[in-house]
Amino acid sequence: MKGAAEEPFEELIERSSLGTVGARQLRQRTPQPKTDEVRRIQQQRLAGRFEGQTAEQRLADRRERLLTAAYSLFSTPGFHAVTIERLCSEAHISNRAFYECFDGREGLLQALYERDVEEALTQVAKAIAEASVTPEDQFVDGVTRYLEFATADRRRARIMHVEALRVSSIENARRQALRRFAEVFQEVVINLPGNRPQDPYLIALGLHGVFQELIREWLEAGTPPSTELLVGTVINIFMGSARPAS
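The chain above was modelled as a monomer; its predicted structure follows.
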């Protein structure tokens, strides 16, 4: 008869950081290990992983593992289909440890989205700075770098251009990212040849809207368009917007 202090093995594994390998090891040793045995093995593994680390380092490690798990799970099957329990299982941390890192799934998605945006804008700004002196080349190189970055990983593309739009609680973070995006391209748009637009910031903001729909098409099409075709489409739209009216 099971003691009152014991828990079902599968439930304890689900809440622990042992993961599949640890579970298999315990099953090989005994068909129904006691709670104390599960916890002893778990503590040994965690002690080895965190030996010599400060509390801040351990927290950073858990946070990074959650971000890694969310990077895949928020892409497939998607944000709304993923529970905190599944994220913790994938990251091999307890549910309690999750809330030491994030206040909820939305906070985790926002952190992931902001990290991707930061990397994207850094790469775009670098491409523009390294391009030749002509505004046309700067614009083309900036557009190319963004689309190459976004489409290099379908998980990144889905998080930035699909899942982030489905969660209203991170809308402020998304609007801030859009403004930063427009600011990066604004100076390039101003210097494109032909008639300067009355509000180059709005033109640059509209550029992101085009990116948004092209990347959604790239994600959902049976035969995704090539990156070269995506770049060519953007250039045709926005280089034309700066040309003199006939």
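Residues 1-7, 242-246 have pLDDT under 50 and may be disordered.
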